[in-house]
Amino acid sequence: MEEEFYTIRATLGFGKMIDWEILEGRDFSANFPSDSLAFIVNETAVKYMNLENPIGEYVKWGESENYKIIGVVKDMITLSPFDPTVPTLYTLHQGDFLRFVNIKIASDDTAVQGAIAKAQEVFLKHNPENVFTYRFLDEEYEQNFNDEKRVAKLIGIFSIVAIFISCLGILGLSTFMAVQRKKEIGIRKVLGASMRSIWQLLSKQFMVLVVISLIIAIPIGYYFSSQWLLQYSYRIAVDFWVMALASVIIVGITLLTVSFQVIKAASANPVNSLHAE
């Protein structure tokens, strides 16, 4: 069953360094020599092993050793941020061999450069035959999201362009409508129609088209958005309020665009409109 688990060998103070959250039990401690045969497990590992009370349970690991579970920590991203959390076991490192050393340092540039120089000095002192190399964890995680950031940026740009083109189309249609119905607007004003009633009459046909388009677009947009999010293990849900807010914004932009031409046409002198006809 070892291949089902991801094992992290740590030293004392590892949990404090990564600021993990202990849900049950305790952290590794130098006051307990028996911790050399102990595990701290994550939530996913507890669920995988179906343990109701994991603290104090023993897990057989390797050929013959039984490891005691002394703590349960909250799930953390230890591998790819795009993959689901795997059952993870944390155990104290034994021996002198280390593949990686994680060091937590302050974020300002002076502290970073000083810490790197000090780490290199210690490394070369104990292992002068090998090359000292290092990576920054935040930069590695940043690279994982570069593609998503580029896609998000492109989607944002194309969305703005699409909205702008749509507004131009609505503005053109409203202008054409105002010109075509100039005589009708003039007659209505002569007969006592208010600007509000004229605005409602001319805006109504645009709003009907917008409502129909929203009825078609919202289910399609919700479906494809949900399907796109399924590729991510850590994702948000597409809530109804997001679609509602988008609908309100679309209606608002349409009314603002149409109202400009409608109010302009309704404010014109009806005598000039009828005389032009």
Total of helices: 9
The main pleated sheet reads as:
6 strands, mixed
**Strand percentage:** 5-15%
The dominant shape is elongated
The total strand number stands at 6
The end-to-end distance, rounded to whole angstroms, is 88 Å
Portion in helices: 40-55%
The residue-averaged pLDDT reads: 82
Query: Over the alpha carbons, how many angstroms does the gyration radius reach?
Result: 33 Å
Question: How many structural domains can be distinguished in the coordinates?
Answer: 3
The helix/strand class is alpha/beta
Order of secondary-structure elements:
EHEEHEEEHHHHHHH
Poorly predicted spans: none
How would you summarize this macromolecular structure in one to three sentences?
By secondary structure, the chain is α/β, with parallel strands linked by helices. The protein contains 9 helices and 6 strands.
